[in-house]
Automatic annotation (TrEMBL):
Gene Ontology CC terms, in alphabetical order: cytosol
Coiled-coil residues: none
Binding-site residues, ADP-alpha-D-glucose: K15
GO MF entries: alpha-1,4-glucan glucosyltransferase (ADP-glucose donor) activity; alpha-1,4-glucan glucosyltransferase (UDP-glucose donor) activity
InterPro entries: Glyco_trans_1 (IPR001296), GS/SS (IPR011835), Starch_synth_cat_dom (IPR013534)
Domain of life according to the entry: Bacteria
Source organism of this protein record: Azospirillum griseum
GO BP field: glycogen biosynthetic process
Protein name as it appears in the record: Glycogen synthase
Role, per record: Synthesizes alpha-1,4-glucan chains using ADP-glucose.
Name of the coding gene: glgA
Entries under Pfam families matching the protein: Glyco_transf_5, Glycos_transf_1
Record-annotated Glycosyl transferase family domain positions: 298-459
Amino acid sequence: MRVLYATSECYPLVKTGGLADVSAALPPALNAAGADVRLLLPGYPAVLNGLSNLHEVGDLITDLPGCDRARLLLGRTADGVLAYALDAPSLYNRPGNPYLGPDGRDWPDNAQRFAALAWAAAGFAAHTSYDPWWRPDVLHGHDWQTGLIPAYLTLRPDRFGGPSRPGTILTIHNIAYQGNVGPWMLGELGLPASCFRMDGVEYYGNIGFLKAGCYYADRLTTVSPTYAHEIQTPEHGTGLQGLLAGRAADLSGILNGVDYDIWDPARDPHIAARYTPDDLGGKDACKADLQSAFGLDRRPDAPLAAVVSRLTWHKGLDLVLDAASHWVGWGGQLVVLGSGDPASEAGFRQLAQQHPQSVGVRIGYDEPLSHRIQAGCDLFLVPSRSEPCGLTQMYALKYGSLPLVRRTGGLADSIIDANPAAIADGSATGFQFVAPTAQELLWSLRRAIALYRKPDRWQAMQRHAMTRDLGWRGPAEEYMELYRGLVP
């Protein structure tokens, strides 16, 4: 089973969010399950510098949208996964964020940049000149950046026709990001005018990259079962709910997994002390280390809550700002790592100034520090208004830092609420609330602090959370079933 896994980012080469973590962890799990998965990545400088044994394969590609010519290079990731890099310097040789220019705005040619990635992926279906030794059975694209892959295969048989059409899957990691551009770009993107209709690539008067993928792909997946249901509703479907409801039989929700080679307190090199479910002693040292790192009072008995997130309304961080003073008043502490809306950043900075011994804030992102936060906190907050899957709450489970989440998307699927029945039977792993209000968050914080004051119950819940298996083996098997259904 040969699978080309097309993605715009992959950790540690380039990362802006959870897509990079998934792109790093799922292909090795699929290979372990019997697939032959290869990545296709844009040739960003970090990708070209980060892949080992990089060498040119096949012929020059001379008809990419927005680019006269490009090379296809093949190398390996640090995990040993074979990866193609689309080396098109005019499109990808830019520093920093893969989507944003130095002014913080989208690159004006993002449509061409990711149409080229989709064009190259589709090219594997028909042209042995891309790599004479390897041709995929399945093209698996991720998010809007790869949405045109199935469209090209369907609409351009003159360019991508071949002896057999590979199966196509599009995974929606976040439906809020759709890649919409003006209709005048049809020709430049290599799309025929006839496809600009509702039953095609048209999306509210524009060309929709994600819409195209949702319409033309053989199968659709998203990153949790609950999110697969939610995006079929007006509240979460962002205009695509009708199309997705009509394709419900082709839409699967597969919960993301955790890479335990990276996220495991028993061997994490970034944390102050190692620990396991059978010996939680090291977690106390990690808590003291975290309090020191953020300049907080060294109080072992203070319940320490944490946030590692983009600081946006969508992530529900305004609820944390509204609830934080009450939490501090109850004796709690809070650390925050993230960046986002200027107003949110300013709000958290002000909160830290008001409560310097109880609240610590770092604006930005720091991967090693995020590990120290997971290990050192008692309670991990993910109050998102919408969350396709979420990974940080699953990392928190492994570190015995009980997640407090809003019941939506993958947060609902991965965390078992500490209601009386779940506490009694030992299945609880965290805390959930429903309405996205500060009052609901405060109610769950009250429940959490009450349980924290009962150390035996709290530690029993920690141990159960740490032993939950949310690794990639199960999700990889579900994807393998999808792949098998697409290959004759």
